[in-house]
Amino acid sequence: MLHVLVDKDKIAGPLQKVQSIVDKKTIMNIINNVYIYTDDENLFIEATDLEISYRSKIPCDIKEQGAVTVNSRQLFEIVKDFPSPVIEFKEDSNCWVTIGAGEKAEYKIGGLPPDDFPKFRSVNSDNYTDIESETLKALIDKTIFSASFDEKKFALSGIFLQQISPDSKDHYTESDENVPRLRMVSSDGHRLSLMEAEIPADHLDITKGVILPKKGAQEIKRIIEDNEVARLGIDDKFCFVTSGHDQLVIRLIDGTFPDYRVIIPETRERFLTFKRQTVYNALKRISVLCSDTMFRGVKASITVNAMEIESLDKNLGEAREIVEVSYEGEPFEMAFNAKYMMEALSVMDSDDVILIANNAESPCLLTGEKDKGFLGLIMPMSLDTEA
Q: 160 φ, ψ to 5°?
């Protein structure tokens, strides 16, 4: 029968992390719960929604080994504001658990037998790389926002994860050649985000690529934030991430990601540079007068050192702003979704952004000196929309 003493601070963190994993809408009551069990020295917490599984190891004082499952939300709400720095967990009969601190506090909650809790998949130790947590977070942050929300576009609903070998000529950014890179790509069919970073030349092999679900990518960000290095592993159908005492197993999306290379222009003819925050603020103001919150069409007219931006939607009013840019070529026009441009600019770090647009029918590309490895692409809108 489970009986342990554990520091409140050590168990509260893992319990908070599982709240976004546990499927609260499921009719399977057992996966509303967390699975709590011990070995000779540690307490373990597991949670799953059957697509993502989480496990954390917590040092504790074990009085008696055991295993229970209790409601995830109830347990977290009790623990996070518990009045004692040390919490006693003691299993009673019929899967009930007493949570206490001597005479100061005592809670009793009912659980379910642990035998039916889904088994945690063994972490892959063959196909992996150790990667800086800051790098992995940047890869996710700069791609996840442009993944599709359309359930019909199944393969586009996640992030494409691919290893680029050192001898590959597959280059879209200013990344160094002759080093292995990890690339993430996302697209909803109207825009694309590509981010890559150098990784150690070790045991990873995913040159064909896999599709990581958005929820899984978000959970990776949560478990890596307190550690400098994470281990990322892949097998046929699962992604494995280990960070400190935390482990994630994520079921990959079973699908084929479209060949994103075909929409990235090979030639780059027109370059202009602008202040990222200046253009972002102008687009934000102009978007106020767009009736469609998703498709905020704007037209940009570029002349020497100036870009005039105006709304295409005239139903709520008219908006126009001129911003300073660095450009010396022939005048041209293009139309694009302001929302997509704003979201791309919001994940960039560069003060000065380079926009590449060959013509009105060509996608525009976004890069920046402080955004090494990043390429944003936005498909054009028809200028006929103005009519």
A: -80, 125
pLDDT tens profile 312-364: 877 777 889 999 999 999 999 999 999 999 999 999 999 999 999 988 889 99
Give the mean model confidence (pLDDT) for residues 261-278: 93
pTM of the predicted model, to two decimals?
0.92
Annotate 207-275 with DSSP letters as a single string. TT-EEEEHHHHHHHHHHHTT-SEEEEEE-SSEEEEEETTEEEEEEPB-S----GGGGS-S----EEEEE
Give me the residue spans of the domains in the chain.
Answer: 3-116, 128-261, 265-386
Flag whether pLDDT at 13 surpasses 50.
yes
Q: What is the DSSP string of 4-71?
A: EEEEHHHHHHHHHHHTTTS-TT-S-GGGGEEEEEE-SSEEEEEEE-SSEEEEEEEE-EEEE--EEEEE
Evaluate if residue 168 carries a pLDDT over 80.
Answer: no
CATH numeric code, 3-116: 3.10.150.10
